[in-house]
Amino acid sequence: MKKYLLMSCLLLGLTASAQFKSANLQASGLTCAMCSNAINKSLKTLSFVEKVEADIASSSFLIVFKEGAEINFDQLRKKVEDAGFSVAKLKVVTVFKNTTVENDKLVTIDGKQFYFLNVKNQVLNGEQTITIVDKNFIPVKEYKKFAASTKVESFKTGETKGTRIYHVTI
């Protein structure tokens, strides 16, 4: 019984309260306004996306999420790839409530697993921007830099025991 209570407390301690508000997605491979339009249209088809605003000059897209919707970052990436381009960077504005993060540690946020890399141990409150540093979310050179900073196997595969793990930094 004591073992069960201890495990419950540990699991609750690893679960954080936060809400994903918006994202800034930078795409690569765009050459014109029609390229930007293709990504814009593709992203708008996702059920959790409220609106998308394109910035052609920086090849980036401000994506506002529907409040309370289940967000899937892999679907965002797939929609960009389906339009014929790739993600160069994905920064997610998240509203945190007393969320403890530590370097090289896993935290559950809004039912998703996030592994924090290259961060100071801290408690997050209010709006913070996290950057997803998984393969196909950042350029190869940056990915290799993060890969060198951790030994966790999930960084290479993006999952552990069939559960998707997002690797992020602040």
Share of helical residues? 25-40%
User: Helix- and strand-based class?
Assistant: alpha+beta
Strand content: 35-45%
Global morphology: globular
Strand order of the main beta sheet, please?
A: 1-4-7-9-6-5
Instruction: Name the CATH architecture.
Output: 2-Layer Sandwich
Classified by CATH, the class is Alpha Beta
H/E element string? HEHEEHEEEEHHEE
Poorly predicted runs of 5 or more residues: 1-14
Radius of gyration: 17 Å
Domains counted in the coordinates: how many?
Answer: 1
Could you report the average pLDDT, rounded to the nearest whole number?
A: 89
In CATH terms, what is the fold-level topology? Alpha-Beta Plaits
> What is the number of strand segments?
9
Tally of helical runs: 5
Biggest sheet overview: 6 strands, mixed, barrel
> How many angstroms separate the termini?
38 Å
